[in-house]
Amino acid sequence: MNYKKIILKRGKEESLKRFHPWVFSGAIAHIDDGVEEGDLVAVYTSAKEFIAVGHFQIGSIAVRILDFTEREIDDDFFYERLQRAYELRKSIGLIRPDNNAFRLVHGEGDFLPGLVVDIYDRTAVVQAHSPGMHFARNTIAQALVKIADGLIRNVYYKSETTLPYKAQLDPQNDYIIGGFETNIAIENGLKFHVDWLKGQKTGFFVDQRDNRSLLEHYAKGRNVLNMFCYTGGFSFYAMRGQANLVHSVDSSSKAIKLTNDNVELNFPGDPRHKAFAEDAFKFLNGIDDQYDLIILDPPAFAKHKSALKNALIGYRKLNSKAFERIKSGGILFTFSCSQAVNKDQFRLAVFSAAAQSGRKVRILHQLTQPSDHPINIYHPEGEYLKGLVLYVE
Ligand code: SAH
Asked: Which pTM value belongs to this model?
């Protein structure tokens, strides 16, 4: 191993000793000459003891740790990490003929900070969030087609919007291996068109799988409003769960088209479903108490800590609308996917909204992200999805 060195200030190795995978720029005393963005670096304590190896980056998080031993970060490293990520998902029963959409790599949760890989049938969609992972993209793609007994045949690289803009890496979204095969993936027996070419994120929100399943069990005979539906995920589980009617709302007309296409795929001609391309607040203002199961799954209101205050106001306002309108005996599934908002802050925003409405509200479930989005226990920041299931009288 012959990587350039980074030396920490005195005492700044403590978090690394507890296996936290980030080095902040303020902790660094010395950087070897010639270290560039995306380079592999070896991190040393002020006493010149080796502590970790990782990817260097310009910014507040200066190094994302890949390993705490003195090892080469080579083809074998990526092969081993990816195979391990696959084996975890396989061993917990996530990969099945009736479930071929799953997250294979969830950054720090799979000891690969800066990397996200979602699998849709035989296609892997790869997102790099760090320059180091961008430079490793071809190695990663080659490893992906070798793991999992050859399950993966196509690798699509999609990092145009996830890499730091300032790094000027100019990544092009494109297939690194293979090409288009099918865009239909299956989640718990339901089929979805996944648009990784033009859709949001990697094309589908795999992180709501378990929460959608839970919703299915509450849907029978209810009038369901799926707010911020995107590709309609929650709607089809509600339909399979024998909902009375399901209305899906999203401000993006592309999302509404995807939702309608997905209805046709699973429940062709089913008159219970209608989709509306409309702003959520406008839609909620225009309804009475016709819905007794409402889902609120908005985009991240706070992308950064600086936006926290406004985000909390946003969550309060949105949930207030739902509390005002939902039918007595109704159930509200409400979520936040903002990493900058923690569980308690989100709960406080929902609590304020409930109090404002004066309704009797009880928590039935506290939800989080599924097991293919594991949280590295030494990196609590990896927990980002929060949800509450509420019974409203
Ligand atoms: N619930 C979805 C994921 C939601 S992602 C799922 O299970 O897959 C958030 C969605 O909110 C996006 O599709 C985005 O187009 C939509 N959106 C953003 N702002 C909105 C607004 N003001 N009104 C309605 N939809 C909005």
From this structure: 0.95
